[in-house]
What does this fold into?
Amino acid sequence: MPVNKTRSRISEKSDKPRDTGYVLRRLWAYVYQYKLMLLAAILLTIIGNMLGLIGPMLSGYAIDAIQPGKGRVDFQTVFFYAGLMIVFYIFSSILSYLLSVLMIRLSQKLVWRMREDVFGRLVDLPVGYFDSHQVGDIISRISYDIDTVNTSLSTDLVQICASVITVAGSFIMMLVISPRLVLVMLITIPMSLLYTRYMAKKVRPLFRTRSAKLGQLNGFVEEMVSGQKTIKAYAAEDAIMDRFNALNNETAEAYYRAEYYGSMTGPTVNFINNLSLSLITVFGAVLYLFNKMTLGNISSFVQYSRRFSGPINEAANIISELQSAAAAAERVFKLIDEAPEPPDKEGAFELCELNGDVKIEGVSFGYLPDRVIIKNLFLHARPGSLTAIVGPTGAGKTTIINLLMRFYDVWDGGIYLDGMETRELTRSSLRKAYAMVLQDTWLFEGSIFDNIAYGKENATMEEVVAAAKMAGIHSFIKRLPQGYNTILNEDGLNISKGQKQLLTIARAMLLDAKMLILDEATSNVDTRTEIKIQQAMRRLMEKKTCFVIAHRLSTIKGADNILVVDQGDIVEQGTHEELMNKKGFYYRLYMSQFE
Amino acid sequence: MIFHYLKPYYLRMFFGLIIKMLGTFMDLGLPWVLAYIIDNIIPLQNVSLILWWGVVMVALSVGARSFNIIANRMAAWVARNTTRTLRHDLFEKILSLSGAQLDYFTIPSLEARMTSDTYNIHSMIGMMQRIGVRAPIILIGGIIITSTLEPVLTLVLVGVLPFLAFIVIFVSKKGIPLYIRLQQSVDKMVRVVRENITGIRVIKALSKSSYEKKRFFDVNTELMNKELKAGTTMAITNPAMNLMLNIGLTLVVIVGAYRVNLGASQPGKIVAFLSYFAIMLQAVMAITRIFVVYSKASASAARIAQVLNAPEDLKTIENTKLIRPEYHIAFNHVSFSYSKEPNIVDVDFAIKKGGSLGIIGSTGSGKTTLVNLLMRFYDVDEGSITIDGRDIRSFDKQQLRKKFGVVFQNDVLFADRIYENISFGRDLPYERVHKAAADAQAASFINELEAGLDFSLAIKGNNLSGGQKQRLLIARALAGKPEILILDDSSRALDYRTDALLRKAIRENYQDTTMIVIAQRISSVMKLDHILVLEDGKVAGYGSHEELLAACSVYQEIYQSQMMS
It folds into this structure.
């Protein structure tokens, strides 16, 4: 068997920001999935805006029919065009509503897809990722960051579509009315473009900092709110408040800086707008003076120029929003791009029939590249045996479980199941071969039934009740008003730690696994209950290979094999009697409790 | 609620408003000049006069830009300060919530309120001042300026406004509840994500990834549908308002035609009116954007206010008379329940200063609850708890808690230096921290670290083993030389040898400290002065190890199961 030297590592992509282009391309890939909707949206936009564009033209004609002076108004023409205007505006409004709905739909689907992708990646990430990332930060990516993308897409995408049409349409209309007056635009367009560019360069990094700071603050709040009881117990509120204030200030400052520059946008856009209005007025008036234009022409032209520069102004707004969206999207993509657990080896076996013979041969491992925790470990657990792992704290006992379940891969050596290298097996079949009760009980918001039945699909009520009985939790559950349908709330706050523990034990009991892992599993249960559980487990453990990590010697005494671990090495191995007779490390450990 | 936070900035906001008004009026002045040029200057046939008026227009444009930028920056400043204070207060309040209130709000929901809800409010405050103020100014200012031009046409404009108001009210009435429901879905989604992060090992062990994906799919889809509904409702505003204004615009043309025909008006004024309509249209469109932000923010504000207005749960009372002052700690016939089922029933015991008490009992028997009551995370329902005879409810909460050094079940370490984790905001001298670490049997592994006490822990102390973490927690409890030391199940991650050394160190170096040890193992409590045996929240036995062994059946049973096997 070739020795696999690749260290299990958490992919830390370089922190340097990618270019906007990359992020936008990734976003575009999402949009492209809904190209039909997008096409429909673009079509609606074109028609809606065309109709909208006709309005000013019509009002221009109507105004031309209004000749200055008493009794010179051509009412028939005025009414004709006014009627047309109303019809067009109604159509245009309906279309624009349809467009909005369509775009909301599109952006929602897209955001939905994105959340699915993030979550899909999240559950496939190696356990190591969660050991080294704050929950708050991950959650802020899937909620706040995606939300930012959403807001930007649902409003900005419509805006962009509409803008393109409006700009092009207005421009054509203006050309039709007066090519000479269009020259005014030669001044204002470059101004708009330059400004937009400047903002993009200046503001984007500010928005990225803003996102990052918020993530940091969220992480801090998460940590402190969950440690709230401890903070109170030590009356450390003031010290924590100080740290919070510092972070809060930084975040507020980052927001302010981004907005300080961001807030120039609106007025600047308006300015360009007003400038073109001024120029049009002056030159339009001059042209009118020389009879090159009618009054209606000027009126239409002014309206078009507003429509023309409106979107260009908006563009600056949109760009600053797109920027915060891009910064947010970048963080989202970064999570999606995290390396998942490496795929199963090609042609990996699906475990089916299994004896439960576990061999660890010459395994070395550590979590950090420069810190070896397990050195050259050998271990053999025969089918149906009970292996107890004991040793001082920090000796690397939980690590063995991480390796058995392949939450982490070994550096050196190998782990064999019935003689098969575990890396030759599919992870899911390997893990399903184990039933596991961890030190940290984990329950989710759902009924007690669902929580117990979690590991076994289509479990019947009888099976669940039987498991609960074996775990000694049945009578407790029955006393609850809703029985097995009781919904456990967040973190199972409505039941005690011990009861939670018993529920997870019941969950493990329901599994049809060949091997059993108990990681200090009974440490939250009092000894009397533990005795009951142990008896039940004995029954469950029949023909199962068991690994028990515990400090309690009464648990260990019945073990077929005791591994005494110190600093990653198995220092002793044998039954309780053998080890006691040896008068070595285990003996001292055992006797210290009666000191 | 938000107004309360804005109050200190009223003056600044007022100046901002004035500046904004100046800027906006300059914006509004432009079409007026346009009409003036068309109707009054052009007939004079004077090109240079036209150019001069052009200069006026450009000057107005420049002024409008400068004033608006200044006002916007002032707005951003106010938004920053307000949110900062709000977040500060909210965090402070969260830190002061009682255990029962924490259970009620739940931790994830509090986090959401701290983060996304304050963010929504920030957006709103900023936007309100920038656009929310500008839009009404434009509407009102527009009306004022146009009425100087042509009062009858202005009436047309004013006639449109009630319709606009109706749309806004109608849509926001529908929209705000939708956003509240939307937020609930967001919470649900976040909860599933959180459960998956915390339970990742179990999920992977049971290969439930696809099941969890399905679960997420459901909440995600629900969220999408809620967002669709809210979004679709809000989307009515824009086109409807647009339509109203455009109809108004058409009416201006028609009414204007009559007026011109009567000789009461000029065509240039109609052109100017159309321009005003365009400006107002933009302002109104901005209002609709604000309404989306406003709906979100008011839902958020309600959620934040819920926390901020949570009543002071644990009130300080007047101490009337001393009860059992000869004892350091006394539980005087205490009863308590978290909800309906009684959790503690008539518990009565007392400890002398420097004495020690072990509490033992089965899971769910109420051991930890006793600590929660003693440290006043919850208040007793009946009876009282006294320290040196004084009811703990008469102490200042912080003063009360400063008497304690405690290690909770599943206690937490923070991503900070070891020193900070032990000192924990108390600014203890290094020697003291060293000594506490040594007593807690943590010195050996700390000394092995290159950085020693300056070693930085990862999140939740994940770069240490369980036992190392436990020893740091104990060091934290010892470091303040507490009057009362409470160890709740804190030896469970320690091996027997370390546990024994720890007990010895405490006995020798903390003689004045009254100690309460909650444990599963009899060996952890058998050497203490007294042992309290709890069963179903009631006292099943009280006395020394020997006494209990002789008289308490529950204790005998536990002892046998642990020692005889």
Strands of chain B lie at 329-336, 344-351, 356-361, 382-387, 390-391, 404-407, 484-488, 514-519, 530-535, 538-543.
